[in-house]
Amino acid sequence: MKIEHLEERVNDYRNSIKTVVDKRMLWKNKTKDILLKTLQGIVQQYDIGWKVQELSWIHNNEAINITFDSFPQELIDCTNLIPAYQFLPGGALIFSQSYNGDIYVFMLFPEIENKPQENNMIELGVYTPESITQKLIVEKVDEFLKEIIKWEVPSLKNKVGY
Fold it and tell me: How far apart are CA 88 and CA 114, in angstroms?
């Protein structure tokens, strides 16, 4: 017995699985390398206390991020003048491959002890693996830095970061 309307749906399902596999292979064979090389180049060219991390959770989720690891070296002496001033970890720009193979780009703000973590994230878009280019990566790093600057030195109307 052949059920025609189900055959079409079964074929659609097969094609959807193939699409996901193709996206995940593109991530593995090209996109991840572009992200690593571009972000590592940025870290080397602009030494402001950040580093690149390659993350792998469970079987179907990988990510590349750039995160602040320490104060910029040239500001250590200046920050030492205020002993209570501490580096706040947690600021990161993340390129994460989702279950369907697309790349979810978002940023996290630094963590402040005893402060609720609501609004600690900004979504910067979802992209197909083939659309992740050096130009897009640089644009997202620029966007990330703008948001971190606003967080560090908020307008007087906001109380972000205390």
Answer: 13
Distance CA 32, CA 57 (A): 15
Question: Where do the H-state alpha helices sit in the chain?
Answer: 4-26, 32-45, 76-80, 134-152
The residue behind tokens 């193939």 is 18
Q: What is the mean pLDDT of the chain?
A: 83
CB 101 within 8 A of CB 22: yes
Number of Cβ atoms within 10 Å of the Cβ of 11: 10
State pTM to two decimals.
Answer: 0.82
- Measuring CA to CA, which residue among 107, 98, 105, 152 is closest to residue 133? 105
Lowest mean pLDDT among 23-32, 98-107, 145-154: 145-154
CA dihedral for 153, 157, 158, 159, sign (positive or negative): positive
Token code pair at residue 141: 């790093």
On the 0-12 / 13-18 / 19+ scale of CB atoms within 10 A, 113 is: exposed
Q: Find how far residue 103's CA is from the centre of its chain.
A: 9
**CA 97 to CA 90: how far, in whole Å?**
20
Task: Convert the pLDDT of each residue in 33-70 to its tens digit.
Answer: 999 999 999 999 998 888 999 988 766 678 999 998 76
